[in-house]
């Protein structure tokens, strides 16, 4: 059973004619985008905003009409994946490396829906390494700063090369184990010069579509 497909496709039931829809990134959002492509082929009239170059390639492949984010005032609904979700609907994103664009799109969206396999619903955030998008300029200083704070940073690599985000930045993955207070940590991180954005998506999601082997559930948070 393909749980990612079940969750991704279920979320597309919330897409309506005339909407501006944010398309997320990652292997679960992939199935939502594919389904949207099918519906567009059948006549669904929507415009989409992409959260990564890769997603834009998928949207083009399936002839989904896309706009630049600056061409719209707001996005009606964004469907995206997530790496961990806690019982309050706060999450860690950025495992796929697209967190900055994803956060900009999510923050402009009236409704955010995350699509997940049930195993990603956890009690406390932090077992998944927290991605933080950082400036290449001075990044070694920043990594040492993180180390002094016991954040256990690891510079994201792709093979032997440093991973470069769609925004042209680097990523530090913080191996925290657990996060006592995600709001406090988010604030602390953003105060450090060189930190561009964190993978903590707090008070942002409206619905989580979670798929397990028994059921597909829609959890509503706000
Ligand atoms: C990319 C993301 C992804 O949405 C997140 O990593 C989940 O990906 P997947 O559905 O492949 O597990 O935040 O930056």
Furnish the topology, listing elements before pairings.
Elements: H1 3-11, E1 20-23, H2 29-41, E2 47-50, H3 53-61, E3 75-80, E4 84-85, E5 91-92, H4 99-107, E6 109-117, E7 130-134, H5 139-148, E8 153-155, E9 157-158, E10 161-162, E11 170-174, H6 182-190, E12 195-198, E13 200-201, E14 207-211, E15 216-220
Parallel strand pairs: 1-2, 1-3, 3-6, 6-14
Antiparallel strand pairs: 4-5, 5-13, 7-11, 7-12, 8-11, 9-10, 14-15
Structure description:
The longest helix is centred in the first third of the chain and has 13 residues, at 29-41. The radius of gyration is 17 Å and the shape is globular. It has six helices and 15 strands. The protein is an alpha/beta fold and 222 residues long. The model has no long low-confidence stretch (mean pLDDT 98). Bound molecules: ribulose-5-phosphate. Ribulose-5-phosphate (5RP) is lined by residues 24-29, 80-83, 93-99, 102. The site of ribulose-5-phosphate (5RP) has 18 residues, from α4.
In short:
With 222 residues, the chain is of the alpha/beta class.
Provide the descriptors you would attach to this structure in a database record.
222 residues; alpha/beta; six-stranded mixed sheet; globular; binds ribulose-5-phosphate
Give a list of the ligands. ribulose-5-phosphate
Reported for the largest beta sheet, the result is: 6 strands, mixed
Mean pLDDT reading = 98
Helix content: 25-40%
Tell me what portion of residues adopts beta-strand conformation: 25-35%
Broad structural category: alpha/beta
Low-confidence stretches: none
